Amino acid sequence: MTTIERNLQQVHERLKQACTLAGRDVNAVALLAVSKTFDADAVCLALDAGQHAFGENYVQEGTEKIETLRRLRPGVALQWHCIGPLQSNKTRPVAERFDWVQSVDRLKIAQRLSEQRPADLPDLQICLQVNVDGGANKSGVEPEALAELALAVSRLPRLKLRGLMCIPEPVPDFETQRDLFMRAKGLFDQLNAQGLVLDTLSMGMSDDLEAAVAAGSTMVRVGRGVFGSRPAKVTSGA
Ligand SMILES: *Cc1c(COP(=O)(O)O)cnc(C)c1O
After folding, report:
1. CATH homologous superfamily of domain 3-227?
2. pLDDT tens digits along 228-238
């Protein structure tokens, strides 16, 4: 058994326990394997172990990996999620190659993705990144501006608004972490009550997926827990 295969088993075991504790169905929480900084071979190993959805932060690294995987595994349906901050001049390769973008936090980005999404591809699946813990220079739409953005994005052609994504600052204790995730869950429920139809609440990473599942996460994004530790600092913003 490869290390990645064993890691995936462990993550699924953690998800199962977290769902049991929360009284939730384990099938209600999807696993996104965050492959940033790891090469195409690592993705292949995860794929061989049954993982089909992958997250990338950097546009160039992600698009290159998508092309490489198409060569290495022709005909295999992979699902690629862009989860890193997007600049408006870098939206085109994302619109042309990814299946999901989880890091939309302003209308201009969504408009460009909508215009640039090729008509022969399925709708680009969108999550709005929301800033739940108020860090001033963090990405993510402020909760006060979320409803208006969500409504506007939901009306754009070739995009399908699926839900919310958040990345709260790490905090040491479970309760505080869960409370932060509960804010995202509250916003998610509010939008659904206002008539949007959202099914995806993307929250929880290697160190806090239990708290996220307790708060209602439907998708956890796990990097190190699947692929092992990353190099200390990643500077490439491309
Ligand atoms: C890197 C990253 C992850 C995964 O983080 P790990 O701590 O390695 O699990 C999840 N979401 C986003 C947005 C990331 O940038």
Report:
1. Alanine racemase (3.20.20.10)
2. 998 776 555 44
